[in-house]
Design brief:
By secondary structure, the chain is an alpha/beta fold. The chain has 6 helices and 9 strands; from the N terminus they run ββαβααβαβαββββα.
Length: 162
């Protein structure tokens, strides 16, 4: 399947998320994104160096600027279970806006056409690093990295596009 691109419609999918009351919920991407401007960014794995030290902090630290430019939701998707995503979210106590969503089986990542096979590193099928900007489910920016790069999918690039 070809990767999602500009002018494509976001597919719907159910992802795991711990809400403010610490209850595990299954949330719908369409439920979070319909009628809104959203950023969805994906990373290969929780607690991995580039993801934890660069990619996620960029969105956490620039969330207010993104909101000021009209972004309603900032959604992080990773092929990890919800408990791992909850633990990872807790490592960013300053985070007020980024929702850490678990794609435990990689089903949503596959719907996006953004799977990355990291079996040779013992990680199995994960997600390519990416950042999407969508307005009412229509993708307006699709910054998808090749391999392990981190050059076009950061918060700065999304801010430039707004």
């Amino acid at each position: 399947m070809a990767p999602i691109g500009v002018d494509d419609t976001l597919p719907d999918g159910q992802l795991g998320w711990f809400d403010a009351d610490d209850k595990l919920q299954q949330v719908s991407i369409h439920g979070l994104a319909a009628g809104k401007k959203v950023v969805i960014f994906g990373v290969p794995g929780a607690f991995t160096p580039t993801c934890s030290n660069q990619h996620v902090p960029g969105f956490v630290n620039q969330a207010e600027q993104l909101k000021a430019k009209g972004v309603d939701e900032i959604l992080l998707v990773s092929v990890n279970d919800p408990f791992v995503m909850k633990a990872w979210a807790k490592t960013y106590p300053e985070n007020k806006h980024v929702k850490f969503l678990a794609d435990g089986l990689g089903t949503y990542t596959k719907e996006l056409g953004l799977e990355l096979d990291l079996s040779e590193k013992g990680l199995g099928i994960r997600s390519r690093r990416f950042a999407l900007l969508a307005d009412n489910l229509k993708v307006t920016v699709a910054n998808i990295e090749e391999g392990g790069q981190f050059t076009i999918s950061g918060a700065e690039e999304i801010l430039k596009a707004l």
